[in-house]
Amino acid sequence: MKIQNQIKRTLSQPEAIEQINNMLDTNTNINRTKMADLICDQFKFINPRGERQRSGCLKALRKLEQDGLFVLPVPNKTGSVKKSPRRLDEPVPEPQGVPNEVGKICELKLVSVETEEYMRIWNELMIQDHPRGAGPLVGRQLRYLIQSEHGWLGGISFSSAALHLEDRDKWIGWDWNVRQENLHHVVNMSRFLIRSSIECKNLASCVLGMAIKKFPVDFEIRYGHRPLLIESFVDISHYKGTCYKAANWQLIGRTKGRGRQDLLKKCKETVKDIYVYELDRDFRVKIGLPVNSGLGALNLYSCIDSENWAENEFGGAPLGDKRLSDRLVEIAVNKAMNPCCTYNGAAGGNWSKVKAYYRLIDKPDDSAVTMPNILLPHREQTIRRMKAENIVLCIQDGSDLNYNNLDQCEGLGVIGSNQTGAISRGLHMHSTIAVTTDGLPLGVLRSECTAPELKSKDDKRSASAIPIEEKKTFCWIEGLRDCMDLKARMPHTSLINVMDREGDFFELFDDQRKNCSGVNLLVRAKHNRGTTGEHKLFETARHAPVQAQIEIKIPRQSARSKKSKQKARAKRPMRIAKVSVRYLQVKFNPPQYYNDKDPIAIWVVHVREDNPPANTDRLEWFLLTTINIKSIDDALNCVKWYCLRWRIEDWHRVLKSGCKVEELAHKTAERQKRAVAINMVIAWRIMLMTLLGREAPELPPEVLFSNLEIKVLKAYAKKKLQISQIVSATW
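Request: output the structure for the sequence above.
Response:
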């Protein structure tokens, strides 16, 4: 059954009402059930198994009768009798001797509830232990008991999906009509119970995995069609949904606190997280939706077309007014055409466009026009692009935006000082960009600009006494936690947080260890820590045997002269470094002020240049990672991925040199942030287009440029060729 029969919708049509009235006039002695059968035959309300859809037809007829469209035969029984679930005479016995690990449970299996005895056991378990009891369940239903040699461990059931869920419907991307026709492809896991007396590691996630394999087959046998998507709900006031995450379900949003029958929108139910499991990755296509609809995985190449890119990356930003969101899209289009110019130049001097830009940027500081809200649509698109990858590098780094020349700008912080005590004013930007393992940037996952303050002279606390939340390094932990939260939305994608030496502090690794979210770390070591072994970290790594020798390309670095608040930098030519690679696992000790914590087990990949050129600093890296390194290939992947950390440096350079964000001149720091946020996305797109031109030169120009842009580029290339020919002839 590809499209669900719309019984009530079909019977509501005037011609259908006329037919029903004629049938009622002709069959005066017929009861309601037989009338429903006649109507099912007349209108072809047949399910995939060839059976009449009698229940749905009766329900639709009752509702239409309430609307006064006709009068049905008087039912045989008047009034309603509330049915109680069939139960046992005594509680289900507690399971005995259940081990604490799921792999040690004997004869663990799911048993279909198809007999009177099993139904009573299932009902009794739910009434005993489940907060919502045994039901009633709605629509097409399947129930299972969790059986083992130790006794009954719990139960699980499936029934019809929720009629309306804003976050689910947005995630799928269907409208009202498509949802009405295809809701039967979605099934709700309405009950899931592991008995409260059982403490067994990974049992819940294991049972979920078993159900995912068994349920679709059983459902198709019973109801004649295979479901495409399963949904379930987790009460966030009592549970965290850990087993769903472990079983690769996706967190896609939250309910509004309404129930199935909450017609008056009283929202008396508790708010719940919505989890889904895709039984078919192409389910959107199979229900007639475009491949990129909703909030599913998104191919990188499908989102960079020149016609709609700004709408995709900025459209629908929650700025408090749709007109502001539309204006943001127009601003992005104009600025992207001329990223080096001020907005006045980018808009071609069009005064109405310039005024619209400043009306957006100059909104009050407490308005909804904020940096996170401007970036939110791009963040969602970035997450969708991440879902399409097997491995994503989430690269974190910070950079200072110098606005020392803006004397009148309010809200700036201190980003540096020189030997004389003169300070530099500006904003500190800490960002996370998502990058593929081929080095292509998927987008700006997270970014925030803060105004750093000098430590108060009255604050006499030592560094160890200051809570980590008050330290400037806490932004690295916030970036890691953000990735941990996102992991539930992309269970099939491995996330690796890549950081330079600033990320080497104990609290970061401890936070990753405590959360166990499946997000790994790859950090270049800064501190030669003490280990549980004989030597410190660096010496231990240097004594490990060499496992491979590879070449690493070290990019060139231009010279930089000394400025009042900036050190000089020597020129560095590009070169190829021949390095040896070692790897081993160590345990490093916590700092003294964390002596109550256990040592942290970490893998170290040591990269060392054995024979550097004269007058050149030796290349030597100690890469700390939580990735389980099983072979030299895993270690070499870590080296490759760390080399891609420079992508965020490239993005900073495009943002500052290409988009000129340090030349912005607004009156408050909040307004500066808004303008910077717009340029962040533009800088990402410029960098992506540049890399695609290098990595995929065969890519059609229409993917990146509009027809007008292609014409301009062709004319420019032709002009350059003519000039070159004239110069050659003259020479």
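The longest helix spans residues 669-695.
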